[in-house]
Amino acid sequence: MNQKQVMTLAVVAVIVVAAAGVCIYASMDRDDGGSVASLGSSLEVYGNANGDYYIDGEDIELVERIIEEGLDWETEYPFADANCDGVVDQGDIDQIKRIMGATADDPVVIWHNNWNPSGRYIASTTYPITSAAMCTALTTAILLKTLGIDDEIVGSSFTDSGPTSSDRYVYADYFDIMTEDRRIGNAATEVNVDTASNLMTKYGVTAYIYSSSSTTLSNLELVEGAGLDCVQLPDGMSDIDEFNCAVLLLAFLFDTDGKGYMNTAVEYVEWMNAYWKEFQERLSAVYEGEIEQRSGAASSMSIYVSVKGSSNTDIIEQAGLSCPVSNTESSGTTLTYVGGTDTWLNNLDLDYLIILKGSTSGWSWFDEKYDSGDLPTSPNSSSYQYHMNNFSSLQCYKEGNVFIVSSMMPGPLKSAIIAQYVYPELFEDGWAESFVSEYYQKYWGFSEEKCGNLKYVLTEEDVF
């Protein structure tokens, strides 16, 4: 469906006690001067009037109260406007009932929040989704794998360089659709309408699932005009609320015929929120000045250093690091550093440099050799050197405070792993690694033994 015009919602922060707990309504500014409501870790589908994890009879009851009592829905319950027409009336009750009764044979158009580089925007999607294509960006694949959504994904967009067999633990469920006859584009932000139309005809594809990036889908209106709904997720998903919202949205969109995706999503969100609460308690000593805060920067590879506002920088800042790298040259998310006489990064006197990487150069974090405890010396050592050598003049490199962190996990969990290395005095019990291990066991089906053999950080000592 064509993207619906974003409405201006005058929303202020209001604490609302909902069935899922306490939700905070906030607003997301847009370049066009409007704003879009947000719920925190909740289901951002219009019709979820009370701001919990579900659309059900409680939402109907609340909308009825809004109509009868004239409640200020724009401020307190912006998601009560289920049909996004700017008023709350009987039409919204009817829409909620249609959502509750929707099936694969009797779908309904719904409105929900999407994400792009400027923030949230309102989009429409035919619900439920029973057949879709995905971009193979790591964040999207991890999200779908966490929920166990695979049979519904029948096509993909991917670059010529990957993913490869080294990514099999993330992409195992999707390799059969990563072929030229199922390929609808060369990147997350490029969709070939002709090949997409073929998948729509042959496999009944109705939606394209992809994560936001520095640019949005280049031909969004053309793709939507061809009848393909575009579900756009936050890039990197470093923020816990954004990741939780994305989990709940995807689970809701695909949860048909008792598949249980919403049960998994709600369990995951509650598990993640409990983790986050304890994580913040452990870091409180840094925030309250009891422990001196350390500085750091993030990199994705080789010469690129992330700036403030990028998802990688968000991850390290959530780990309690302060990042002094700002971008005054352009609107991009990285700056280049070529070492040698290029001293700007040296002058920042960083305590740590964190490189966040997925599998690379044919090597996977989950390679069987790695599981057995024997780190492969090649190509891993050459890959390590490729990413490290450019930073060898940094003082933090000389002190052994530059390391690679696995990107094969949600952003908030990467923050915990980084914090465990940066502030070992706060994580002497190995809490972060135990929590990530639990994530892989609960949501990826790894055995406890397998998780015990995994390492989530590579240092020079590990590689050589």
Notes on the structure:
- By secondary structure, this protein is of the alpha/beta class.
- The protein folds into 3 domains: 1-102, no CATH class; 128-287, Rossmann fold (3-Layer(aba) Sandwich), CATH 3.40.50; 293-463, Nitrogenase molybdenum iron protein domain (Rossmann fold, 3-Layer(aba) Sandwich).
- It has 17 helices and 16 strands.
- The protein has helices at residues 57-69, 73-76, 90-101, 138-147, 168-171, 193-203, 220-225, 240-254, 261-287, 311-318, 368-371, 380-388, 395-398, 411-422, 431-443, 448-453, 460-463, and strands at 14-18, 21-29, 35-38, 108-116, 119-127, 132-135, 153-157, 183-185, 207-211, 229-233, 296-301, 304-306, 334-336, 352-357, 402-406, 457-458.
- The strands form 4 sheets. The chain has a 6-stranded mixed β-sheet with strand order 13-12-11-14-15-16, sandwiched between helices.
- Helix 1 runs antiparallel to helix 3 (90-101), helix 10 crosses helix 14 and helix 14 runs antiparallel to helix 15.
- The longest helix is centred in the middle third of the chain and has 27 residues, at 261-287.
- Mean pLDDT is 82; it is low at 1-34 and 369-379.
Oligomer: single chain
The name of the CATH topology of the largest domain is Rossmann fold
What's the CATH first level of the largest domain?
A: Alpha Beta
The CATH architecture name of the largest domain reads 3-Layer(aba) Sandwich
Number of strands: 16
Count of alpha and pi helical runs:
17
